[in-house]
Every structure is written in structure tokens, then in C-alpha cells.
Alkaline phosphatase (Zhongshania arctica), 515 residues
Amino acid sequence: MAIATHAAAAVLPSNQSNSPWYTDAAATTETKTTATTPTKAKNVILFVGDGMGVSTLTAARILQGQQNGNSGEEGYLSFETFPHSALVKTYNVDAQTPDSAGTMTAMMSGVKSDAGVLGVAENIVRGDCTTVSGNELITAIELAEIKGMSTGIISTARITHATPAAAYAKSADRNWEDDGDMPTAAKEAGCEDIASQLVNFEANLEARIANSDVDGLDVVMGGGRRSFLPKDAAFNSSDALSSVEGDRTDGRDLTAEWKTRYPAGNYVFDQSSFDAVDASTASKLFGLFNESHMQYEQDRGNDVAGEPSLTQMTSKAIDILNNNSKGYLLVVESGRIDHGHHAGSAYSALTDAIELSNAVQAAVDATNPEETLIMVTADHSHVFTIAGYPKRGNPILGKVVAVGETEPTNAADGMPYTTVGYTNGLGFHDLGAETDADAVYSKGNQAGRADLGSVDTESSGFHQEALIPLGSETHAGEDISLHARGPGSQFVHGVIEQNMVFHMINQALDLLTGE
Ligand SMILES: [Zn+2]
């Protein structure tokens, strides 16, 4: 179709009209103006990059391009080419800068709530079990189950951690991951720990919703094995790292309970048992690949018995969930982008963001854009900045080298500085070839300036400088982005409240109407 960009070409000088910047952008404009999209979807996949603010996207996109031998700035992460996007306001009801529990509760229930609580409304008192009753919210995962769809929850964090737990649990405190984490008063008042709620999901939902008959979560994969096993070495997994892997004080082995409940299901805990699952015949898959969080993507090769990547977990989940002709709702969290930032390791945060991009691409490749809505978003941002005036193609993890220069540009204190950095946190540490960003927590606080003249700031073990000393770098309060493709994605635009994410899912799947 002819559009105005071509009509104007005759009056433009050739260095303008023939410029690839001009012709590429004109061609892209045409693709954006001809797209039409249906509104109802069979399946929805929601990807959440925990802590994946806009500066993280920009830096990850540049790092991805530079790892592929390009200048970097001109590329896109897989989901950045999706046709629809919006900016999302992330605040919690009681917090200007939010946490993952309140934000994921908003995305899963359509209702904003307080920081630190899961699947409960704002009248909850954090930490007070007696205020849970009457404040429970129903999540999109639960509604999809009631509708007869298949459901999946994946995270590289502990599966009992805030973001994944907000999809299935109701808790006055995000930290009640197992009974050993709960105050006695909460247990005596009848509150159930988060791991137990995961294994009892089917029974709890049927008890909560009259006349409902659901078959339970179909695919669950992540870390956090410790909350499912008794505090007894006899229950250690074969790849346990701690002398006693489990944390439970009530003696329950929740992995055994799950296997009893779903005898045809597959419980897996390492790469080989994951690989052995045949997705074409599997009905239920429960994977707990680490005692605590799964590894950072850059550190995954060091895992004792191996663990699958986010991309591998996403692909297997889609293959299993596809077995249900009624469709599925899959929630995928990249949990460790957030942890990399908290540790002040841009390398870790960005390499995990690139892996999320890979997982989204795998989902794009495995689904039909006419029937599957894919949304990619974050829960909140981080105080992570891209600073100074580095020249085009300057290593994103490097020191600022100005346009026309070959040597790093010194700041007013006579020392070079990095392009990316943090407003607060533990500050500069050079751990060399270390690939576990969390190793920094034993090193103490070194906020403030350091002489980086002889430091390799692009190494995996480099932790960026920070201005304000804190025990951990913090979340940030500015908006994050939402990217969407597929049926219903056209409703994603403008600046929206985070609880709108639930309503986008509900619009596409009609979760509240019958089949
Ligand atoms: Zn965080």
C-alpha cells in the first residue's frame, strides 16, 4: 500500500531518501499500519522479567548485539519487535516503589494490593494470619483451571518466591515459604505455608469455589526444593549441596505428597530427569532443580547435576500444555534478573535478560500468532543507569570512551567510569572470573568511587560502583514496559496500571464466562 513516506521522497535529497535509516524505517512503518489482530485467544503466555526495567532492556539489547559481533545499539530483544506495547505504573497500594509480591498479585488478580503479600487484597495486615480470611483474591491461573484450561508456572527463582507464588498462593507474608519460615502464631491461626499451598492447590481451590472440579497445576518448574523437604538429611536429593537440604519442621515431604496425588505425573530435579520427560505423553510435570534459586544463566554450567535453561523449561512446558485442546495459561518468570541487579552485577542481570529474550523467541516459534497471546513485562525496575556519552559500539559493560576517542574519559576526579552503574547497593567489587553474582554478599560494602584504571569491567565478576551504601541494591519506582503479540494484544497501549495485565488476559480468554 502507498503511504505518505513514499510520496514525499521526490523532494528529499538522495542522502536522505536513500539512507538505510530512512528506507528501513519507512518499510517498518508499513508493517505497523497493515496489522490486524483478532481479540480472543486460545492460549496466553505471560513472561515476567523480575526487575527488568527499561534501562535493563536497552543495555541487554546492546550486550546481545555486541556478543554477536555487532555495534549493539541497532538490535532488538525478541519481544521488542512485538507490535504492541505500553508503559506500566508499578506502585503498590501502600508503596511508591513496589516489591514483587504486590506487583504480581496485581497482574494475577486485577487488583492492586500491598507490598509483601500474595493473592490477598489491600485490607490485609502484612504478617497477620488472622487478616487473610475475607481478603483472598482469585487469580487468572485459578480461573483458567476452573475453565478447564491447562496451567503452568515456571521460575528461575524458588517456586515459592514472590512472583510465582502470587499466581497460586494466598499469604499475609511473602516470606512464609515453608512452615519453618512462619511465626508460631500464624501456624496456630491456621495459615498454610506457600510450598504446602502449591502442593494442595487443587484441593484448596475446590474448597474455595463451590461446585468446582479442577485437575491442578499441570506444569510447575523452578528452584526452592528446601521448602518441600523435611529438615532431615535422609530426604536430601542426590545433588544436594547443603548437609541438610530440607527446611520443613513438620516432617512432611511435599514431593512425595505430590507424587501420591498425581501418580502419572513426572517429578524431576536435574537436567537428565528433565530431559527424559516425553512432552507428548506427559500429563503433569513438577520440577525442583535447586535447593534455593536456580543458577544465574552464566553460572548454570557449574550446577552439580545440571539444570535446564529458561528456554528449555519454556519449550517443554508449551509442548505439554498444548496437549489440552481447551488451551492453556502459562506464567514464566525470569527471577534472577532482579537478583543480579540487587547484587550490583549488571553482567548477571543482563545475561539473564538475554536468556529471557531467548525463551520468548522459543515461545514465538512454538505457537500460532492467531491463537496465542504472548505478553512480556516486568514487575518493577531497578536503580540501574546508562550514563555518560560513550561512543557508538562502546562495550556496554566497559568504561565510557567518548566519541572520537580511544581511551576512557576521566571524570572530574581524574578516574575513568563505567557506562552502567547503580544509584545504591554494595558498590564496586572485582571478583574476576566469578560467575555467581551472589558471592559479593560476603565481601562488604564499597559504595563510592574506585580507581577502575586497571580493572576489567566487562568480566563476569565485576560489580559496578554505587553512590549510596546499602546492603543490597534496590528496586526503582519508574514505569516498566509491556510488550504483546497475538489475539488481544491490540489493547496494550498507552500508560496503564499494572493490574490491567490481568484484564488483558481475561479479555483474551474470557476467564469468567463458561467454555
Ligand atoms: Zn527484587
Notes: The chain is about 25% helix and 15% strand. The CA atoms of residues 411 and 460 lie 24 Å apart. The first strand starts at residue 43 and ends at 49. Residues 51, 100, 338, 342, 475 surround zinc ion (CB under 6 Å).
